[in-house]
Structure formats: C-alpha cells, structure tokens
Amino acid sequence: MKKPGRYTNEFKYEAIRLLNEANKPISEIAMELGVKRTLLYRWRDQFNQKGEEAFSGPGRPPIDKISEISKLKRELEQVKEERDILKKAAAYFARDLK
Questions:
Q1: What's the pTM value of the predicted model, to 2 decimals?
Q2: Mean pLDDT, the chain, as a whole number?
Q3: 48 and 6 in one domain?
Q4: CA distance 49 to 39
Q5: Are residues 54 and 65 part of one domain?
Q6: Does the first or last residue of the chain, that is N or C, have fewer Cβ atoms within 10 Å of its Cβ?
Q7: Residue 30 belongs to what domain range?
C-alpha cells in the first residue's frame, strides 16, 4: 500500500473511473488499488462536486512545513498579545501626562 496522501491526480481519476464503470463492489476495487474504501468515496464526492478541478491543489503540506506554520502562528499570537499590552500601557501613561 502507498503512503497516505501520496496519490497522483491520474491515480485518483483512474480510481473514480473504475468506480463508475466497474460492476464490482467498492470494497473490492479498494483492495485492488490498495487504498481504503472511504478514500475512494471521498475522491468520488470531491470529483462530483468540483469536476476536473477536484484535485488541482498541491495536497497536504509536508510535516516539517506544518510544524513551521504552527510555530509561526503561536509566535504571531504572542506578538499580538505583547502589542496589545503595550498599547494599553501607552494609553495609561499618556492619560497621566494630561
């Protein structure tokens, strides 16, 4: 079985074609292709909703990119919190000067 999330668009389109044309149960097709049955259902639903543009995206980002993104989001939240505290402090001290 292939690694999860590493299927080409051509593979997905071929799997959908097999689902639509074959007179086999979906579980049998899934075993032949080496994917989970639920994944085939998901691909079919995406294709039915979006048509040929269903699998145009780059897919899930690599794990190292996900961890970097989450780290940057945490850092951004911290910087926003610090900024808000400084704004309040500046307003407080400016009020005392008047």
A1: 0.52
A2: 84
A3: yes
A4: 15
A5: no
A6: C
A7: 1-59
